[in-house]
């Protein structure tokens, strides 16, 4: 075990040339990031999750009720023992051959069986009230952490000149504000990692899981090798659009269509500007070029930048989805469907399908993160 730990914490991987872990030990004069500090994120992640449960029940739920958002879920599928057995024991998405067999067995037409399975799947989806409470929690947290980040960063020299991220690196002392910001963000992402398995399931579950995983690795990585200054820029920049998305989703659930459309437009503009403009031109420029010039590359430098490039790849993917929704909005006059559906269309939608459309093709409506992934049922279809 000692050999494995020594290999893992190899100074030649983590630190620049001629720097050792002993050089970054805390002293009376200066405090530096220590790997053991990150253990604090686990109990804090649990605390954040508990705060969320309390917030959703005693703050978000009364707000939803005041906005006349009901706890009613989708239409209930009529009881049918044969279809229920197929649904629970065999498949929730029967293929054409199975649909035809069930049609003969029950003397139902295929469209009615399709509708039953769709309604039965939707029964397992959360109500609009639940969705509103989740979005209000995320909106509140994102707004708080972004506001904190801006207030913290505007007092730092590296916000105004990113070369300060690398001057005197890695001997940059850890301030209380920076430590709090980092541990809070890390704790929140750990809470998302766990709650993602109980939250509303969406089609981009895998992408969001990868996003959370990369975020945790980046935060951990940059803290351990004291790249925390540039890490705060990454965090604040990526938090900037999230509150707008959650606000748009809340407006959608409350059926405030014009507000939803406006907020989504603001979100799209901020997201694309920050993720495809400012992030590569400002943050990636300093991590790839300014740091190379001032500090020089070393093994963990390469890993850190590869992770940032992976984040940029996710940003491009989500930007594509947002532009796709925006193009549909222009043609339909309102924010519309997304590929990241988490609830399927009503039977009325299917009944209105044009003749000649394959009746076995499932039709879905929104329901997105995305960042941090993004959209939902209804006209302004955004769900993270």
Based on the model shown, name its key terms.
384 residues; mainly alpha; Arc Repressor Mutant, subunit A; two-stranded antiparallel ribbon; 2 strands; 1% strand; elongated
Description:
- By secondary structure, the chain is mostly helical.
- It has 2 domains: 31-65 and 127-332, no CATH class; 81-124, Arc Repressor Mutant, subunit A, CATH 1.10.10.
- Helices cover 63% and strands 1% of the residues.
- It contains 15 helices and 2 strands.
- The chain has helices at residues 2-8, 11-14, 41-66, 81-89, 96-106, 110-123, 128-153, 157-160, 176-195, 205-224, 228-239, 242-253, 257-294, 299-332, 347-351; strands spanning 343-344, 364-365.
- Strands 1-2 form a two-stranded antiparallel ribbon.
- The chain is elongated.
- Residues 336-384 have low confidence and may be disordered.
What topology emerges from the helices and strands here?
Blueprint: H1 2-8, H2 11-14, H3 41-66, H4 81-89, H5 96-106, H6 110-123, H7 128-153, H8 157-160, H9 176-195, H10 205-224, H11 228-239, H12 242-253, H13 257-294, H14 299-332, E1 343-344, H15 347-351, E2 364-365
Antiparallel strand pairs: 1-2
């Amino acid at each position: 075990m000692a050999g494995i730990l020594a290999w893992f914490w190899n100074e030649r991987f983590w630190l620049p040339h001629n720097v050792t872990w002993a050089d970054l030990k805390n002293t009376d004069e200066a405090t530096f990031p220590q790997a053991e500090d990150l253990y604090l994120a686990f109990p804090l992640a649990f605390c954040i999750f508990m705060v969320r449960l309390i917030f959703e029940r005693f703050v978000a739920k009364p707000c939803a009720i005041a906005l006349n958002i009901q706890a009613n879920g989708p239409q209930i599928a009529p009881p049918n023992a044969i279809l229920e057995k197929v649904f629970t024991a065999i498949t929730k998405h029967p293929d054409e051959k199975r649909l035809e067999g069930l049609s003969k067995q029950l003397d139902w037409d295929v469209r009615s069986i399709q509708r039953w399975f769709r309604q039965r799947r939707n029964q397992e989806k959360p109500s609009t009230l639940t969705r509103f409470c989740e979005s209000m929690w995320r909106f509140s947290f994102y707004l708080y952490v972004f506001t904190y980040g801006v207030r913290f960063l505007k007092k730092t020299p590296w916000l105004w000149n990113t070369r300060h991220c690398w001057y005197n690196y890695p001997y940059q002392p850890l301030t209380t504000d920076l430590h709090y910001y980092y541990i809070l963000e890390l704790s929140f992402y750990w809470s998302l990692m766990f709650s993602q398995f109980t939250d509303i399931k969406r089609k981009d579950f895998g992408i969001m899981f990868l996003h959370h995983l990369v975020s945790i690795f980046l935060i951990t990585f940059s803290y351990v090798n004291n790249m925390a200054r540039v890490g705060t820029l990454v965090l604040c920049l990526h938090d900037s659009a999230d509150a707008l998305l959650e606000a748009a989703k809340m407006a959608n659930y409350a059926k405030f269509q014009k507000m939803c459309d406006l907020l989504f437009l603001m979100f799209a503009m901020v997201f694309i500007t920050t993720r495809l403009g400012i992030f590569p031109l400002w943050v990636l420029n300093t991590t790839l070029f300014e740091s190379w010039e001032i500090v020089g590359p070393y093994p963990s430098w390469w890993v850190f930048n590869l992770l940032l490039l992976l984040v940029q790849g996710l940003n491009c993917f989500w930007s594509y989805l947002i532009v796709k929704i925006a193009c549909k909005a222009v043609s339909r006059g309102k924010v519309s469907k997304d590929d990241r559906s988490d609830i399927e269309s009503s039977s009325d939608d299917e009944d209105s399908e044009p003749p000649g459309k394959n009746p076995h093709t499932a039709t879905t409506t929104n329901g997105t993160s995305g960042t941090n992934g993004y959209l939902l049922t209804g006209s302004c279809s955004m769900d993270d």
